[in-house]
From TrEMBL:
This is Uncharacterized protein. Residues 1-20 form the signal peptide. It comes from the Eukaryota. Residues 130-164 form a coiled coil. Keywords: Coiled coil, Signal.
Length: 201
């Protein structure tokens, strides 16, 4: 599932419908590499901190077409993409749980309605069970909202990074109505995949 702001909005829209409630250049890369490797990179999903990365050798090997600013932006774009992939998997699983829980509530409501139509039945336990299932659904809804917000923030960050890199590679291109496709830039794919593979581990 390729995440976008539109998809995230649709997920939130679905969640709002609830069930019824009960009643680099190579000549300069080595010299500048220390700038890019000076600070450790954080896991995009908010986990452990990566060791110092990348090495000057790897920058020379994979990102020699770019200067340190460009390589740093490509690194952050790749890290953001990994974060988006992680969020996509988490959202898919959580959305499935949410839909499943709505089905559970429908069944419990049907059982309660059957009891209401049967004279002498004790409704207290069934009503308590329905209330508990609604609380579970509300909890899943809140988790989804929080995860959607985090994913939205990462997507916006990725878009901002790509815009910065595009402007750096082709100053004034957006102002002139031109859109530089990063995938068409010589050396971008090799450099991007190097960082993406690292952060995907």
């Amino acid at each position: 599932m390729k995440l976008s702001i539109t998809i995230l909005s649709s997920i939130l829209s679905v969640c709002s419908v609830t069930t019824a409630s009960p009643v680099y250049p190579s000549s300069t890369m080595s010299a500048e590499a220390s700038t890019l490797t000076a600070s450790p990179s954080a896991n995009p999903a908010g986990g452990d901190v990566y060791p110092v990365f990348p090495s000057a050798y790897n920058l020379e090997k994979y990102c020699d077409s770019f200067d340190t600013t460009e390589a740093s932006l490509i690194k952050e774009i790749a890290k953001a993409h990994v974060g988006i992939d992680v969020m996509s998997t988490q959202l898919e699983g959580l959305h499935y749980q949410y839909d499943f829980q709505k089905g559970v509530i429908i069944k419990v409501e049907q059982q309660l309605e059957t009891l209401r139509q049967t004279p002498g039945q004790e409704l207290g336990a069934a009503e308590a069970r329905l209330k508990m299932q609604h609380e579970v659904l509300d909890g899943l809804k809140n988790e989804l909202k929080e995860l959607v917000k985090k994913a939205s923030d990462i997507i916006k960050k990725e878009e901002s990074l790509e815009k910065k890199l595009t402007e750096h590679l082709s100053p004034g291109s957006s102002a002139n109505g031109g859109i530089l496709k990063l995938k068409t830039v010589s050396g971008y794919k090799k450099c991007y995949e190097f960082f993406f593979d690292h952060f995907s581990q």
